[in-house]
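Hi support team,

I'm opening this ticket because the web form for multi-chain structure prediction keeps timing out on my end. I have pasted the exact lines I submitted so you can reproduce it. The total is 649 residues across two entries, so I didn't expect it to be a heavy job. Is there a limit I'm missing, or should I split the entries? Thanks in advance, R.K.
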Amino acid sequence: MTQIAETQSAPTPSLSTRLEIIPVVLFAAFAAAPLLASFSGAEGYVLSLLTRVMIFGIAAMALDLILGYGALVSFGHAAFLGLGGYAVGILASHGFEDVLIQVPVALLASAAFAFVTGAISLRTKGVYFIMITLAFGQMLYFLATSLAAYGGDDGMTLASRSLVAGSDLLENDFIFYWGCLLCLFGTYALSRSIVASRFGRVLRGTRENAVRMEAIGFRPFRFQLAAYVISGMMAGLAGCLLANQAEFVSPAFMTWQRSGELIFMVVLGGLGSLHGAIIGAAAFLLLEEFLPEILHAVSFFLSEETRAHLAENWKMVFGPLLILIVLFVRGGIMGLLRRPHHD
Amino acid sequence: MTATLFFVQALNGLQFGLILFLIAAGLTLVFGVMDFINLAHGVQYMVGAYLVAAFSAWTGSFGWALLLALPTALAFGLLLEALVFRHLYDRDHLDQVLATFGVILFLNQGVKFVWGAAPLSVPVPELLSGSVEIANGLLYPVYRLAIIAAGLVIAALLYVLVNHTRVGMLVRAGASNASMVSALGVNIQRLFMVVFGFGAMLAGFAGAMVAPILSVEPGMGDNILILAFVVIVIGGIGSIRGAFLAALLIGLVDTVGRSFAPNLLRLVLDPAAASQTGRAIAPMLIYIFMAAVLFFRPSGLFPVKR
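Hello R.K., no limit was hit. The queue was backed up. Here is the completed structure from your submission:
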């Protein structure tokens, strides 16, 4: 036990300062992207893709906060995306279109849902926790499909993006992009400070050895529940943004496959580094977007018909790719970036 | 009228519960013995349904199709075990969840690739078509009764197999303490394979049985997988008896709840609001039920003693 605790302790200061380059580069890239996008010729497309990347980055980072730092495998985190999305959709359909109302309501709803389900789920351990969070996610999914007044299975289209203090600023894709970047940066800074605080250290301590944390006088349950609620609220915020980005809300926001994708983003990027989750979300969404084209290009030696067929069935490549990454790429993309420094 | 409706719904619930049991039995054994969380168990149910659809189109007979589908489902399960799952047994649950999630993505797309995205339908076998009168004026489809019978027979066989045979004894011992069983000289790798193949075949059988009454389509295993998880969590992971009782409970609560929740709510709400809320609450019932069970008993109703 002692050995595990020692090997997984925080990276040495010299290493961590070197690694700080990555988030700086990452945020600089997000800040520079809109300027570069105007040269690409497909400005709208690039902007909307990157906006999605940032939104899922927030959601994945929220998950990383409990998964990477607390070892709580929540398999129902998409539920919070849905909560945020539906808060925007339902309030907008009743005439409350301002983010100053929508976002607080969404955050409150997410916090309440996280508090109740977290309090029940955290009584269980390990695989029970995975399954019970999954089931709570499904519960909300089915609730959404049966909300006939709000579109049921088909979901609901938003008349417009949310207002900011009465003005329709967010209709401009650039401003919306900057808004999302601001949210991403804000949640990143918040998560960073949470992780660095005493609270974060207790959470990590609980991840390593809950019994020992109890022995030195902490109640892990409270810390885990607080982290779960914070994480749920951040994912709820991502849901608000996602609804605004798509100008559409549907139960598909919170399918369990979506929860699985969020976990995949976190693991792909590398557990427990926060910016790793953002990189993972970017890698996942870009792969999903471009894999059909990549497959089409790579299979140049096949007939045109087969190539089209292959591109159409890109998920048959995506699935095995996922398995291979799990089996062979330990530590995700951050692990790959870190490796040279270790040698 | 309400009493007969209740009776029919209870039968439907029983039938649904038994199908859930067939899936959950394999899942709970695989988890109990190998400590392996297999999300891809649902696709094995889907594969069973597709196999029976393909074979019955080929042979023209449901009986032959079932006979051919079972060994194929078994072989397919063993193939997946050898290709993917075997490498995951000593990984943590997170890796297992992700890799088996990858298997789901692949196979859902795979059946689309082979059979197309449109749902297939399988004709109800001639012998079991039609309905019987089970009470005065109350008709019930024979095929659904056949599913109930088949489910009960399999449950009884499983009971004998697990509790009164040598393999069953090893499985139970494995669920309590796999490393000890291995230390006593049992080839645990082979035991894993047997359990895994058997679980896959049961799920395939469940898929094959429901093929004539449901549409066979990609992703059909995904939602039932979640229900099977709910079942094994309520029943206690690794416990066949728990899975059986929990499956029946879930089947009944879900089916009866869906048809009676609006009626019950009508007692306290006005009709329009009652049917609205009833429809919204009914699909959530089983999850609320699960949360309640786990709140009082965090490791399920029949936890396996370790």
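A quick check on our side: Strands of chain A lie at 156-157, 248-249. Let us know if the file doesn't open in your viewer.
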